């Protein structure tokens, strides 16, 4: 796999001659796959190591990255190529169209969790949820926690560009957070390891089925092909809540990303991002302006500042009021 990676540095880094030569190499997009919870379970190892995530309004744990690396190194039926393993270790935040950054947690996902807390998703019936570019998936896992505490029937779709991110980080994070939300497990430790038996995995699946919590994992690039797959199972505008964090950094990806929002949002879309992504051109304002042109004037669309630090961070809040048979309660969120 040959592709140029980059970090989101805050200045224009000088490029070597070799980098300049390779920068027009455009790798083919990865294939699109849709996988059910049951079929994903074969990628869960017999032990999972986790750490508590700080700074959230929810008690959430996530799998340790070193634990993923060990699994990839030890795996017999390794589907990941050694170069994918190297990407995990590399200094690059992402490599466009090869690895889009989902293995690590980006700071805007924390902002999004705080916004979710204010939304009262259960009171407003926002229980069919799609997270676009989910990576470690803290926002949708925060929603899961609320849903699971009340055992509300729901649909949770986890989408990431890379299938390996869904297999080795997203799904383990869902399992870990389910585990610590079942009554008998104490999540007060900062770090730890859980044993994952066949029985535990069976109980995980049975519990989701019993409580009508449907989960699906969707990998690949945004666009009509991915939308066809969603459409076949759920139709258009199925999701009462769409979440996305740090998915607006690439200007060429804004169009397919907005397309996914327009096709799938029934009620609310919440998108968190940095005000400016240095060196790549994406920004909250660019995204907001494009979305504004695409949505109905009847809708509510606004930007809320979440941090005024060096690199500012914001949230774009879109409430689709133009769909007549909305099943959610009207908005109570004000500017
Ligand atoms: C910078 S990571 C952010 C991950 C996570 N949301 C967070 O904030 O921690 C960007 C995410 O967007 C997704 N992504 C980026 N471009 C994409 C594209 N063209 N099609 C589908 N997913 C894409 C990737 O899957 C990746 O996980």
Give the full name of the CATH homologous superfamily: Vaccinia Virus protein VP39
Number of domains: 1
Model regions low in confidence, pLDDT < 50 over at least 5 residues:
9-22, 328-335
The CATH top-level class label: Alpha Beta
Work out the helix count: 11
| Strand adjacency order, main sheet | 1-7-5-4-8-9-11-10
For the biggest sheet, the summary is: 8 strands, mixed
Q: What global shape is seen? A: globular
Mean pLDDT: 87
C-alpha termini separation: 45 Å
Counting copies of identical and different chains, the oligomeric state is single chain
Structural category: alpha/beta
Beta-strand content: 15-25%
Can you walk me through this structure?
The protein has 335 residues and is α/β, with parallel strands linked by helices. It has one domain: Vaccinia Virus protein VP39 (Rossmann fold, 3-Layer(aba) Sandwich), CATH 3.40.50.150. It has 11 helices and 11 strands. The protein has helices at residues 17-22, 37-40, 65-74, 82-89, 107-119, 138-149, 163-181, 198-210, 224-234, 251-264, 284-294; strands spanning 33-36, 47-52, 61-63, 128-132, 154-160, 191-195, 213-219, 239-245, 265-274, 300-307, 313-319. Strands 1-7-5-4-8-9-11-10 form an 8-stranded mixed beta sheet, sandwiched between helices. The chain has a 3-stranded antiparallel beta sheet with strand order 3-2-6. Strand 4 (128-132), helix 6 and strand 5 form a beta-alpha-beta unit. Helix 10 crosses helix 11 (284-294). The longest helix has 19 residues, at 163-181. It is globular, with a radius of gyration of 19 Å. Bound molecules: S-adenosylmethionine.
